[in-house]
Structures are given as structure tokens and as C-alpha cells.
Specification:
Elements: H1 8-15, H2 19-30, H3 34-47
């Protein structure tokens, strides 16, 4: 069961999604984008003096 009391199978059927699609998307949400993280860190390092 997922939060809210609905069975995952029922939700997937209603949304017309394959179980594999659901888990693939769930995994992608948790993935860290290393290139993006590096860019954000570089911007912070370059402009950290604006936060003082």
C-alpha cells in the first residue's frame, strides 16, 4: 500500500502506467545530476559574497 491507502496496482491501472514505468520514474527522481550540482557549486563559489 502507498500513503493514502490506495493500492499501487489500482493507481497504476487508473493512470494507465506500467509498473516498470512507475519504478523507472521513481528512480529518476532520486538520481543526482552531477553536472548540474557542479554548475550550482561553481555559481555559489563565484558569487558567495552576495549572500553576506
Amino acid at each position: 500500500m502507498v500513503s493514502g491507502g490506495f493500492l499501487l496496482d489500482l493507481l497504476l491501472e487508473t493512470a494507465r502506467l506500467a509498473r516498470s514505468t512507475y519504478y523507472y520514474q521513481l528512480k529518476q527522481l532520486g538520481r543526482v545530476d552531477k553536472e548540474l550540482k557542479s554548475e550550482i557549486q561553481a555559481i555559489f563559489t563565484d558569487f558567495h559574497y552576495f549572500s553576506d
